[in-house]
Amino acid sequence: MSLLRLLFNIVWFVLGGFVMGLAWWLAGLLCFISIVGIPFGRACFVIGEMAFWPFGQESVNRKHLTGHEDLGTGSFGLIGNVIWFLFFGIWLAIGHLAHALACFITIIGIPFAIQHIKLALLSLTPIGQTIVTKPV
After folding, report:
1. What whole-number distance in Å separates Cα of residue 62 and Cα of residue 21?
2. H-type helices in the chain, by residue range?
3. DSSP calls for 110-121
4. Which one of 28, 29, 45, 134 is CB 3.0 to 4.6 Å from 41, fit for a cystine?
5. CB 130 within 8 A of CB 60
6. What pLDDT sits at residue 120?
7. What is the largest CA-CA distance in the chain?
8. Contacts of 60 (CB under 8 A, 6+ apart)
9. Under a CB-based contact definition with an 8 Å cutoff, are residues 25 and 48 in contact?
10. Which are the contacts of 56, defined by CB distance < 8 A and separation ≥ 6?
11. Do residues 43 and 8 make contact, with C-beta atoms less than 8 angstroms apart?
12. Which pLDDT tens digits describe the chain residue by residue (136 residues)?
């Protein structure tokens, strides 16, 4: 990990990443209450880790990454994303957008606001996505 990426991730963690990462993990715990929600919960924990340390990571559609559809990238994934959006997605997106607005106030906060917007978009439809590390 480059020094600048590490520095940005530390500042991110202190200025809102910790809170949003916990929000993702809380959503994951709530999903694990029912057996049907376990795939949603797993996705929450993976994306929650990205919410803690977003610099150097990005979300990619699994269909584009692997070249074929799976359960989460097909029609079941679409249904899952609609259910996700109604119960958790909208609230996580609002949280990320509120943090993004707070970060856009200063010039130094713009890279952090951009990460919050990326996570807000991901929080709307996380089923079928995977997190990959960007090359240095």
Report:
1. 22
2. 3-12, 18-32, 38-52, 62-66, 75-84, 90-103, 110-124
3. HHHHHHHHHHHH
4. 28
5. yes
6. 95
7. 45
8. 129, 130, 131, 132
9. yes
10. 1, 2, 5, 9, 133, 134, 136
11. no
12. 589 899 999 999 988 899 999 999 999 999 999 888 888 899 899 999 999 999 999 999 888 888 888 878 888 889 999 999 999 999 999 999 999 999 999 999 999 999 999 999 999 999 888 899 988 7
What angle, 0 to 180 degrees and rounded to 10, lies between the N-to-C axes of helices 18-32 and 38-52? Answer: 170
Kindly state the tokens that stand for 131.
Answer: 């997190």
Q: Which residue has the tokens 């906060």?
A: 109
Would you state the pLDDT for residue 1? 56
- Total number of domains constituting the chain: 1
Angle at 66 between CA 129 and CA 113, to 5 degrees: 30
